[in-house]
């Protein structure tokens, strides 16, 4: 499901996680650019590629906690599902040492919509995005990672009832971990959210910025992140980060989902500057 790379960037390691249905090799271009521009030393840890449930029942055993509680400051980035998982991992560690987190076209507010059909057919060929909630919002469905962040605006009651991941890390459901999830995110020096209208996979593409669909009067409309409760109530610390100039939004057109971490110009323009 994910893999981890660690590089020393200006004496600061950078941990990178890839997304679903891809492996460590998918991040080779990003690795080379980081090494050629900034890195003095690097190593890679392969952690497998699966589509099973994102997090275990006990949050302290979350995957990807690699070296995040050491005394060395870290940069952390993740592409697609890997960015969502990387963010969640940070939130489970109130004393983490991550200074910069870069979310690269990741469904931070969840996934739902027309482009999802192409994505779903790779994993569940017989399912349609409009009715997939019938599987995803069940105990069996929640054993798959995609179901863990499937956010159907028409079925919010089922989403909160069955989803074992996204409504928890976004503090839509309050638990004993909610304050930790918020405190840990505000510990960052910078959170960079990157996405674009030509992504073609993340739906809505603005989910990369915590925006998502709202269902009103029979129609779906994207609600900007700063108008959603997750921001206005400062549920996970987004508003705190924004108020302190620590939240960076990068909307870049003409970049497909599979190019964010492979296109040299894109990497140099929207990723590397935030790692310096």
Compact overview of the structure:
Its EC number is 3.1.2.2. The chain is an alpha/beta fold and 276 residues long.
Mind explaining what this structure looks like?
With 276 residues, the chain is α/β, with parallel strands linked by helices. The chain has a single domain, classed as Alpha/Beta hydrolase fold, catalytic domain (Rossmann fold, 3-Layer(aba) Sandwich), CATH 3.40.50.1820. Helices cover 28% and strands 19% of the residues. The protein has 11 helices and 9 strands. The protein has a 7-stranded mixed β-sheet, sandwiched between helices. The chain has a two-stranded antiparallel sheet with strand order 7-8. Strand 7 and strand 8 form a beta hairpin. Helix 2 packs across helix 8. The longest helix has 11 residues. It is globular. About 4% of the residues have low confidence.
What proportion of the residues is helical, as a percent range? Answer: 25-40%
- So how many helices? 11
**What's the name of the CATH homologous superfamily?**
Alpha/Beta hydrolase fold, catalytic domain
According to CATH, the fold-level topology is Rossmann fold
- Work out the radius of gyration: 17 Å
Oligomer: single chain
Run of helices and strands = EEHEEHEHHHHHHEEEHHEH
**Class by alpha and beta content:** alpha/beta
Tally of DSSP β-strands: 9
Protein name: palmitoyl-CoA hydrolase
Enzyme class: hydrolase
Catalytic activity: S-hexadecanoyl-N-acetylcysteamine + H2O = N-acetylcysteamine + hexadecanoate + H(+)
Pfam families: Palm_thioest
